[in-house]
């Protein structure tokens, strides 16, 4: 039962999309298990950059099936745009992309509430995509699931009730204008014929595939520190992007998971509000942002940048249970004369080695300095060919996290990927 989980170790944007696209070359299925269009997974295809918000990153491999699994949220407008751009590349998704009927839908009222809350209540720095309010409806048991679209009249009834209630809420609480019921329903009706064939019992697809020893990648969106329970609450998303989320959301047995790979950027970024111990506030933070093109793939917002924080990886390792790492964007550090790594923290109570989300604002990183390799690593084909100081940097990460680095990404394209000798995923 080779199920492989790919998880973000930091605050999302670790480059999971590229790693999944790479690994999916030998996968039967890639299944997303959490989040919605707040994700922005960037992949390169025939010299074109694509950003997936809804569709699993493995879809570019023409033999791989993509699943938007239960536990996810779906914005049909965004899905439509994504399908158009995939099909414009000549990639066929017929019989290759499936949406579980249990996926919850995001409607314009979710986005309106998300934005109002950000503007008028506590600012989390959300993506504004309606994620929190849509998950709220799911857990309040008033949400609308994709499967309901199969019975149009009942669906419209349910939606009308929700719109009436949300409009009341928007007007009374936020003094906002009501949203048009007619527009929402008409737009959905137009898209229905294209959507209905995609709605499938994905649980059966997954369990059948695992049973016959097929290869499944479970694609995590966001990252460990954005987990609703284990992240830097309240500056988190509203789902479980951690390994446990796979089983709870998709209804997959933990026994189906053979391997977990943690993806971490060679430095750290965060978008939105909240504590960030190794953040670089000086000019260097800005140049790292420019060099790494650290602007949100979903919102375009500039990402905050900082040094790699090993306490975070140790914490992510504990939460997710991985012992293998993929390190991304190593090339972004090419020019730096000196590289710092946070290896534990000083606190009022003494030194600690592992990140603690609840006290993140009070953690003072202890830095270890490394000489930079100061040359381009573009075109490197093997681990052993990396400059000595780059290898030392990676070895230090391995030693201090007790994880094996099995993949290194040194650029945007699939070919810019180094795989450790002897590492076979499937
Ligand atoms: P929400 O998921 O839109 O509610 O946003 C909650 C927090 O998670 C905000 O800080 C967002 O910036 C962050 N966030 C959500 N999705 C992603 C992602 O895919 N990458 C990075 N940050 C994200």
List keywords for this structure.
alpha/beta; four-stranded mixed β-sheet; 426 residues; globular; binds inosinic acid; 11 helices
* Hetero ligands: inosinic acid
Major sheet details? 9 strands, mixed
- Which stretches of 5+ consecutive residues score pLDDT under 50? none
Q: What is the end-to-end distance?
A: 10 Å
Can you tell me the overall shape? globular
Oligomeric state? single chain
Structural class: alpha/beta
Strand content: 15-25%
- Sheet with the most strands: spatial strand order: 7-5-2-9-1-10-14-18-19
Helix segment count?
11
Give the SSE string.
EHEEEEEHEEHHHHHEHEEHEEHEEEEHEE
Give a brief rundown of this model:
With 426 residues, the chain is α/β, with parallel strands linked by helices.
What would you note in describing this structure?
The chain is α/β, with parallel strands linked by helices. 31% of the residues lie in helices and 20% in strands. It has a 9-stranded mixed beta sheet, sandwiched between helices. Strands 13, 15, 16 and 17 form a 4-stranded mixed beta sheet that branches. Helix 3 packs across helix 4 (131-139). The radius of gyration is 21 Å and the shape is globular. The protein starts with a strand and ends in a 7-residue tail after the last strand. It binds inosinic acid.
């Amino acid at each position: 039962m080779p199920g492989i989980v790919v998880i973000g170790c930091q605050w999302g944007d670790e480059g999971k999309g590229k790693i999944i696209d790479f690994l999916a070359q030998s996968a039967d299925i890639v299944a997303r298990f959490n989040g919605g269009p707040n994700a922005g997974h960037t992949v390169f295809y025939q010299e074109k950059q694509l950003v997936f918000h809804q569709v699993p990153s493995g879809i570019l491999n023409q033999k791989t099936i993509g699943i938007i699994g239960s536990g996810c949220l779906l914005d049909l407008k965004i899905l439509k745009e994504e399908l158009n751009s995939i099909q414009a590349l000549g990639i066929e998704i017929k019989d290759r992309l499936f949406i579980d009927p249990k996926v919850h839908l995001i409607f314009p009222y979710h986005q309106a509430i998300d934005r109002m809350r950000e503007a008028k209540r506590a600012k989390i720095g959300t993506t504004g995509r309606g994620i929190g309010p849509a998950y709220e409806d799911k857990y309040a048991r008033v949400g609308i699931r994709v499967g309901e679209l199969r019975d149009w009249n009942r669906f419209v009834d349910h939606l009308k009730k929700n719109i009436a209630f949300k409009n009341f809420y928007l007007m009374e609480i936020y003094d906002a204008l009501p949203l048009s019921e007619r527009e929402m329903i008409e737009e959905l009706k137009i898209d229905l014929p294209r959507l209905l064939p995609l709605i499938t019992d994905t649980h059966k697809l997954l369990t059948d595939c695992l049973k016959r020893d097929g290869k499944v990648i479970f694609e995590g969106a966001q990252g460990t520190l954005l987990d609703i329970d284990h992240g830097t609450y309240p500056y988190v998303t509203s789902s479980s992007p951690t390994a446990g989320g796979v089983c709870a959301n998709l209804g997959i047995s933990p026994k189906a998971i053979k391997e977990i790979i943690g993806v971490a950027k060679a430095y750290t970024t965060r978008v939105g509000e909240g504590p960030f111990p190794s953040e670089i506030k000086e000019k260097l933070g800005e140049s790292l942002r420019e060099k790494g093109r650290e602007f949100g793939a979903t919102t375009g917002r500039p990402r905050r940048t900082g040094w790699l924080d090993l306490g975070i990886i140790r914490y992510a390792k504990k939460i997710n249970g991985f012992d293998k790492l993929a390190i991304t964007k190593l090339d972004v550090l090419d020019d730096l004369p000196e590289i710092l790594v946070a290896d534990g923290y000083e606190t009022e109570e003494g030194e600690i080695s592992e990140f603690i989300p609840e006290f993140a604002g009070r953690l003072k990183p202890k830095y270890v300095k490394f000489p930079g390799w100061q040359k381009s690593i573009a075109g490197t084909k093997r681990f052993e060919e990396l400059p000595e100081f780059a290898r030392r940097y990676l070895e230090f990460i391995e030693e201090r996290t007790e994880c094996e680095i099995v993949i290194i990404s040194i650029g945007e394209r699939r070919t810019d990927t180094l795989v450790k000798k002897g590492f076979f995923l499937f």
